[in-house]
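Example record

The entry below shows one chain as it appears in the dataset: sequence first, then structure tokens.
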Amino acid sequence: MQSRKMIMAGGVSFVVGALAFVSVFGYLAAKFDYPGILDGSAAQVLPRLRNGGSTMRAVWAIYALLPLFLVPGAVGAWFACPSSRGRMTLALIAASLAAFAMCLGLMRWPSIHWSLAGAYLHAGPETKDSLEALFDGLNLYLGNYIGEFLGEISLAAFFLLAGVSMRDEEQFPKWLGWAGIAFALLFTIGAFRNVTSVVQPIADANNVLLPLWMVILGAALIRYSSRPIHAVNNE
């Protein structure tokens, strides 16, 4: 019974996280030209960030916490795949790492970047040069490498391991596991958009496919949590 509750909670977490992602992403796209603005300079981005006021800062703070929905979702998936305990333990670790990396990358916006935006408004030319260098460095390290690359590669690893594991569970249809594997490979390719612009169209498509896949995965956990789960010994 406890396993069923955890699976149900995991499914709900994936669905709620996906819907919240779509809502916040839509707001930032309309009010902040996100994600296109990420390629802008400090002179273009920081004044717009500050002009958004407390609402913009609050939205970024919420956005930074949304990856945490991945953790209970991954816990639910772990309980749903008793035939692959070792593999799903790695998947849970990967999802936790992805959530931490993505949160860390996004949290720069309502914290460090918000402070930089306030200082930039009253800074002289030399100070602005320093702030712009700091802004670019934070985007490269926290944004491109930690939040995007490490976060997305880790999340792709979770989807891959979960997809392979779900193929071995009777309560899940085979297509679900194969779809998870396919999406994981696609998501991995998109993560290299900061290395080559060739994969940018795939990365753009992943912004749509990610919440869609989370809803599908969450719905599958909710639906199939009511079916018999055959406990097996740990691998």
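Notes for this example: The first helix runs from residue 2 to 32. The two ends are 22 Å apart (CA to CA).
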